[in-house]
Amino acid sequence: MKNRMKLCALVMLMLPALAQAQQQFTTPEQAATSFANAVINQDKTALTEVLGDNWQQYLPDDKADPEAVARFIRDWKVSHNIEEKGDTAHLNVGQENWQLPIPMVKTQAGWHFDMQRAADEILTRTIGLNELSAIQAIHAFVAAQQDYYQLAKQYAQKFVSSEGKKDGLYWPVSPGEAPSPLGPGFSPVQPGMGYHGYHFRILTAQGAEAPGGEKNYIADGKMADGYALIAWPVEYGQTGIATFMVNNQGIVYQKDLGEQTAEKVPEIKQFNPDKSWQEEQQ
């Protein structure tokens, strides 16, 4: 997807035990200031009063990111303004004018943050961030394969090396040793967890639609004639939408495989970007 939105996570604080009514404000500026003060002061009660008792249903399940909280506080202090259109307003902060994904809406009772309307925007930003991270990881894989080739005169057929060997892109090192070409993130400790919402699999052949035509990258047990990678969302529509492919030329292709992504990806055995695949434009 050409336009990918950056997501800056905000503080996740535990809800107080007792439910309370969501606060209404005379102006969106007052609502924004109350929200910022609650974040700055880490005031659990005030945060729940501003966002409402059900706000945690709509925010991502990730744990609080202290750095993200610090960035929001810093940006708020640099500058903040309200973008108002009719009965809806948004808070923008910092030099980059980053927009909080939680809209403020006006009713007869006043202005308040609408967490339900924020749900789609939060999901969109989460997917966008995951897809951007997946693309960055793909480029890291390409660079790692090039480094590995310089060491082994072949490309790696797996991400993590066998114990005591260097037959994959990652292997543990002792202090003072040069790092392996790639970190261990592509193969998470917990099966199914993925990396930034994506799974990754190395492809060892390419199809007729690939530059150079159909061929197997492996000969005599060595993968020296190229390499490829496919990346797909852990949960379609929740952690990502696009499926990505790349080969040793470093051009990333994308395609929306739809709701059946998890069933379709295992059938993809070759790097074969036909006309249904689009070249990724960053």
From TrEMBL:
Pfam families: DUF2950 (PF11453). InterPro entries: DUF2950. Residues 1-21 form the signal peptide. Keywords: Signal. It comes from the Bacteria. This is DUF2950 domain-containing protein. It comes from Buttiauxella gaviniae.
